Structure formats: structure tokens, C-alpha cells
Amino acid sequence: MNMHGIFAPVIDETPHHAPTLASKVLGWLRRRRAIMLVVFLPTALVAGYYYLIAADQYVSEAHFIIRSSDTPAAMPSSFGSLLGLAGGMTQSQGEALSVSDYLVSHEAVATLDRDIGLIGRFQRPEADAFSRLRSDQLTPERLLKYYKGKVAVNFNRDTGITTLSVHAFRPDDAYAIIQRLMTLGEQRVNQLNARGYNDAVGLARRQLSEAETALAKIQEQMTSFRQRRQDIDPEGSGKAQIGLVSTLRGQLAAAQSQLDTMGAFISRSSPQYIAMSRQVQSLRSQVAAQAGRLTGDAPADPSIATDLGGYEDLRLRQEFVGKRYEAAAANFEQARERAQRQQLYLVRVVDANKAVTPLYPERGRIVLTVFLALLLIYGIGWLIVAGVREHAA
Prior knowledge:
By secondary structure, the protein is an alpha+beta fold.
């Protein structure tokens, strides 16, 4: 027996091949398939979309404030006080918010589409299929939702400045949309001004109109009274009549005294006494007649006694209505001045710019965010699995 042959080593004659680069890569990927599927593959898909498919978007931005002429002292802090706008912001904050809400409303979308063809601007051929406004999004609700994704309105309560930004697939489209939105904002402010002015001045204007009508009516009644009585100044005529009666009564008293004196010295049948007696009778008749005109007892002309009271009533009503008209006119003027001081103005702090370079989508930031988020998820999952295995072991 050949002992050397028994203990001789067995030589494996099967040929061995050196591992190739592909096999090494496949083995490495197989060992790390979990992180590849959870982290790298989704990140690669996101990067492929944003760098190869996603369309560029251009942004136009404008800043504006809404303030009133009646601006009180600015608050001591905040950037708005530095601009001298904080007081105006406090007064017109509600109006600024209402304008901001209007710019992202159905009405604004319909107006933009009617004026500048908003839908067509969001359906440009250079837009990718995921970003383009599709035909199934043309209902008012879906269109508004898409529009809000392209138009942003942000109001800063500290400064009172509203920032308006528009995303579009062409620079001209973004610029046209934001310019039209600024015009719509100014028109909305003008509508608020008109509505506020009418509300503030409307009541005062109605009161003034009623006072004018009442004054015109009493003036017409005064004119009709004068024409009917053919007396331009019944009050003056009444005073003149009273003076006349007083004069006649004085003359009658003097004549009566003279007649009594004559009766003591001469005969009642003398011509002098008879003439004086007739003069006294004449004066007595005149006094009775003129006094009858004042008291209304004279059937020939009862107007002075009867109508002087009516004229005085008309005159008092005229004075009352005149004072009412003066108060209404002053109130109207104050309301008008107050409403004018509260008029709102849209002030363009930063006018709209025309974009040159597309700022969106932010490809690098999005891809990096996705990668880090997936890596965090994978790390948490790996820790959970490792803990479960360790606990099971």
C-alpha cells in the first residue's frame, strides 16, 4: 500500500472564476436592497421627475398696502411704524383682508379668465402633464383650487403689507396675471370706498333732502299767503294798523277833552260846539272801524285780525324749518368730510417684476428633502427591526 498516496491531498480540478464587477455590484445591492428600495429608488424617481420632466415656473411678486387718509399716530414698534403705515394698517386691516380674500375668489378667477384668458395661460405646451391645468379641472371648484396653487396672497399684520405672488410657465404670463390682479385690487378698494361713502353720507343726505323739501314747502305757503292777501308783509301791516288805531284814539281823546271843555263855557247849540261834536263822532267812527279791522269785527276787511295769527304760525314754522335745514346741512358736510378722510387707497410698495430666471420648482431642495426624509424613515425602521430581533434572540 502506498501510504504516500493515501495521505496525498486531494486536488480540486474544478475551475474557479474571479468575481466580476457586475457580480460585486449585484451582491452589494442584494445585501443593501432594503435601503435601496426605501431610500434611493424613490429619491431617484423624484429627481428624475423634477430634473427631466417638471416644467420651469416663473414668479412675479408685488407688495402693496391699503391705508386711509385719516391715519392716526403710528404704533411705537414694528416695521410699519418706521414706514408710517402702522396706524393706517390698524384702521384698514379688515379692508386689506377683504381685498386679499377677493384676489383668490371665484369672482377674481372668472374676471381674469374673461380679461386675459387665465385658463389658456395655465395650459401652455411647455408645462408638464402633472403641472398643467387639465380639462377635468375646469369646473369652478377645481379651477379655483388650481388657481390657489399658483397665486398666493399673504397679509403681514405687523407691517400691514400684503405680498402677492404669481407662478406661471412663462414670464409674460406671470407678469400679466399679477398686473391684472393689482388692477382688480384697486377696483375693489374703489368699490369699498363708494359703498362706505354712500353708507356714511346716505343718512345725512336724506335728512338734508327732507329739510330742503320742508323748507321749500313752507316758503311756498308763505308766498301763497302773501299773494292771497295781497300783502307782502302782513306783520308790518298789522303793526301799522295798531299804530293807526293808537293815533286815532289819541286824537279822539284830545277832541273829546276839547269838546268837554267847550261845553263848560259855550252853548251846545253854538256852531263851534256842534263842529267839535261832529269831529269827535267822526274820530270815534274811525277808531271803531280801524279797531274792527284788527279784531276782525269789521265785515269789510277781517284779514288783519284773522290772518295775522296764521302768518305768525307760518313764520315760526319757517324759522324752525330753517334751523332744521341749517343743522342738516352742517351734519351732511361733517359726514362728507369724515367719509372723505376714511377713503381707502391701495399703495404699491413694490411694483410687480417681470421674471427672467425660473425659481420653481426648487429641484435641489425638494430632492434633498425627500432623501433626508426617507433616510430618516429607513433609520427609524431599521432601529425598530433591530430591536425586535434582539428581543427575540
